[in-house]
Amino acid sequence: MLQDRIRLSSLLDKVMSPAEAALLIKDGMTVGMSGFTRAGDAKAVPLALAERARTEPLGITLITGASLGSGIDSVLTEAHVLKRRLPFQSDSVLRAAINRGEVMFIDQHLSETVELLRSNQMGPVDVAVIEAAAITREGGIVPTTSVGNSATFAILAEKVIIEINLGQQIDFEGIHDIYIPTRRPFREPIPVVSPDSRIGLPFIPIDPAKIAAIVVTNQQDSSAATTPPDDETRAIAGHLIEFLGSEVRKGRLTERLSPLQAGIGSIANAVLHGLIESPFHDMTMYSEVLQDSTFDLFDSGKLAFASGSSITLSAACQARVFPEIGRYKNRLILRPQEISNHPEVIRRLGIIAINTALEFDIYGNVNSTHVGGTHMMNGIGGSGDFARNAYLGIFVTKSLAKGGTISRVVPMVPHVDHNEHDVDVVVTEVGLADLRGLAPRERARVIIDNCIHANFRDLAEDYYREALKHGGQTPHKLAEAFTWYTRLEETGSMLPK
Amino acid sequence: MLQDRIRLSSLLDKVMSPAEAALLIKDGMTVGMSGFTRAGDAKAVPLALAERARTEPLGITLITGASLGSGIDSVLTEAHVLKRRLPFQSDSVLRAAINRGEVMFIDQHLSETVELLRSNQMGPVDVAVIEAAAITREGGIVPTTSVGNSATFAILAEKVIIEINLGQQIDFEGIHDIYIPTRRPFREPIPVVSPDSRIGLPFIPIDPAKIAAIVVTNQQDSSAATTPPDDETRAIAGHLIEFLGSEVRKGRLTERLSPLQAGIGSIANAVLHGLIESPFHDMTMYSEVLQDSTFDLFDSGKLAFASGSSITLSAACQARVFPEIGRYKNRLILRPQEISNHPEVIRRLGIIAINTALEFDIYGNVNSTHVGGTHMMNGIGGSGDFARNAYLGIFVTKSLAKGGTISRVVPMVPHVDHNEHDVDVVVTEVGLADLRGLAPRERARVIIDNCIHANFRDLAEDYYREALKHGGQTPHKLAEAFTWYTRLEETGSMLPK
User: Fold this and answer.
1) What does the pLDDT look like over B245-259, one tens digit per residue?
2) CATH 3.40.1080.10: which residues of chain B?
3) Where is the Acetyl-CoA hydrolase/transferase C-terminal domain (chains A, B) (predicted)?
4) Could you confirm whether domain A231-491 is CATH 3.40.1080.10?
């Protein structure tokens, strides 16, 4: 049985316990671990590390693809193992430690981390810990539900620990397409010309001599917590689908649309679900995370092909899809996140990118990361890779939060992740603002008219009127730009008493 | 003589006066004009338009490559011809009208304008006005000192007006490399793999039947106003060259460095001049504007090849270089700005991008465009195309302005063009901060320690200390984030009395 998963027989004697494998990781090391949006993360070695940290000093720099599942970031944070963490996380315990300044968190565009490692601008990677479905006869590593940064971690690391997860379907083999850009200054074009372009190998090619330990696990990925569509998310989806329909009528898009990317979360998921009932057909996705909606679109016959870097599903969808993953195999590719998110490919394919904003301002600047301008939520993820280079950079959010005390459309965002140059369309349940080709004063008009909640509209009008007196390309009154935030802090609401 | 420049004889009867040609442009039209950083701009037809606007209503949307010379934007603004203007400008009269809200200015990444036009998300382009050195026997347009957006304007426009400028050297023929990406969804990789890759035609290929008018001019480009290096710009250059040297010693770069891009302006020019005395050699440039420093580097034997979209020189350098441009031809390529600034190519080549910041903040966010957060200076230009995708995104500025009353390093920039995710290194004459791999709190430390002027250091420390009490990934005290600006407005200085 294990020989089906570890096919290079010389590696069978590398099988050991997680605790033994974890001994390869020493205090002060930089460790690259698999895992992207809870999918395909290393599940045993990190826990063994946390256990060891109870009795000896053990602090590491942890680099992953994106967020991990199974509360691993919580456990590692509580054990004080994490000194530095990049490029993304979505863990409440880690988040609190980051915001206390205890863990140094480097929030990066998800396509860029391996570029920095490869050029020796960060690193080196001492140890890689990679979950795999199998190791081939040649010593190639077959990933599981995500590729993330695993390929480059394994290639660059001094030593590699493999977690063979018997709980992951062996049928994932063949879904992955591992391509590593050639080294600059001799880099060739990345040959992806369509979401279904296969350009690499179905496994991560490394020297098997680097595989220093193999750990056997048997555990499903953490499932995604899905929130069912509600009136607001359905309204957002409705506005967006109507807009895409009008783009088709204007001859800018065909009914196949353009390859779709959707960020993680309930709004993006609701938008994609909305496409099931839309007039569009034979659609494709070129995204990072494939969620329930991808498989619902497949099953509805609307989706022809999906490329991503990970598959993150609800428990119900996991139970439905994973045992039958072979059935989807000819319509699916999982790529390194460097390729799924590569500016070159995104610009070439002409992607429609739909990402969730934490908030946006009346000029179309988007905050994706910092609550109140200061406290990290999760990180920018791939939203910058996609929005900057997309055919259409779309940001969605509900207009209100916290029972209506907070407006998600504000005079000035206190942290900018995507600026006016990169944001084409913003949508709330109130409506949609098409910002393309508009000057800032024109954008303020359509955003206030179309997107802000009625409860905050007069307040926004007041600010904008005062700002206009000050003049400029982008009128602001700096002394009052953040009064909605200071009021929130003082009174618990952005609304005046 | 004219037959040497207009080689397709059927076009000779299209020669007419600027006033006659300008009649092709009607009120309400969208017009694409050649011109990038004063180079290769249409010089006669825009003035004829302004003249006509004295007697009839004539308002247009004007799209160019980048800034124009000869005060053309001033003349057009004063004649109220400009209703909308994009994607860049650097004219004081136009700037004032923009900031009064009279001209709608759309500030775009310079690589993106033609992408939006081609996909019909903006436009259509009614008339293109293109300066040319010649028209070939096939009707191909040979540009002059810039390519900018001229190729796509000419291809997309209903009608094309050519300004044959006898004052531009015919020897420019052969320098240009005109490549237009194929239409999505069938776009091929852009085959530039090195600054010297020639991938297109030496002229703009259009149907000669579209050439509706030809105007003959005889006028040099406006020369660049150059400021000689001073102590501060020399210090900035020194810090940067020392940094690049340390990157070579660490094995991250070779002594050839990586292809260089430098924004326009005296600081970038001083940095490039500094390279003449550096240990680096056989360097290349993959930039947008080639300035005096490019030719000084050629003449010093340090530079092997330069690719750009325009050549903008001082009067003295024009007089020296242009008559001998043939001598440089095998080391020079001028490309469409879509290609010189293309994210795909910039990421592939691994460019060292050096751009001027208006100001930056203690966390490494850069404002390139908005004075005081509200008033447009010139526009983002290509800095976003380059910084986001560069191997190294470097921003330079003097630490002080206006006789020391203004600090160019502030607690929070009131407009963000390049955020923490895109800025690798910041430099003032005080020193250099290498931000790679640092969390925001760590960045604040090195920026305050290395870059801010001593007169503002305590003030910045005070702000940061207070901000730390508030906590977060990126500590701020929003109520006081802009007090330096409000103090400047009230007292004329960012420094307290």
Assistant:
1) 999 999 999 999 999
2) 2-217, 231-491
3) 329-459
4) yes
